[in-house]
């Protein structure tokens, strides 16, 4: 599991939202719809530069599955036509430790089971903000996703 530190700027994003259980069929369908919308609006450069962010907004331990909000977001630099499919908001940015993980069930489950231990080992303090999935088309031929774990300001030794 490869990792690095990255600071993301405060920036405008467009997003689609689904309300329902995380990992649901509807979330996968939303990804297809979002990718088509990106292509239809000629935002492939933004996609290639920053990838798609998957942002779970609710803690599933404290929120009923049917009320969990999940956004797919894209940093945008150019013009687009919403057609009511996307909304716009400001992404607050911040510092993240990035974990690159094969996008297969076992690897993703291992990530979630070991993240607390890895954070302690690296002496990183979790910032109160969602852990984000990032899907980039430029990572390589393997299906890979990145988990962006929000951390307090990182000061390398």
UniProtKB/TrEMBL annotation:
Residues 1-152 form the AraC effector-binding domain. It holds the Pfam family GyrI-like. It comes from the Bacteria. InterPro entries: AraC_E-bd, GyrI-like, Reg_factor_effector_dom_sf, SmbC-like. PANTHER family: TRANSCRIPTIONAL REGULATOR YGIV-RELATED. This is GyrI-like domain-containing protein. It comes from Candidatus Enterococcus avicola.
């Amino acid at each position: 599991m490869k990792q690095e530190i990255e600071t993301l700027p405060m920036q405008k994003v467009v997003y689609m939202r689904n309300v329902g259980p995380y990992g649901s069929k509807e979330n996968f369908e939303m990804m297809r719809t979002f990718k088509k919308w990106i292509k239809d609006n000629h935002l492939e450069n933004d996609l290639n530069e920053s990838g798609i962010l998957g942002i779970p907004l609710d803690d599933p331990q404290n929120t009923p599955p049917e009320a969990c909000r999940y956004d797919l977001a894209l940093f945008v630099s150019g013009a687009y036509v919403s057609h009511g499919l996307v909304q716009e908001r400001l992404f607050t940015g911040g510092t993240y430790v990035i974990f690159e993980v094969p996008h297969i069930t076992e690897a993703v489950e291992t990530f979630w089971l070991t993240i607390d231990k890895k954070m302690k080992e690296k002496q990183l303090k979790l910032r109160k903000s969602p852990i984000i999935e990032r899907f980039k088309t430029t990572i390589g031929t393997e299906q890979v996703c990145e988990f962006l774990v929000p951390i307090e300001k990182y000061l390398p030794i």
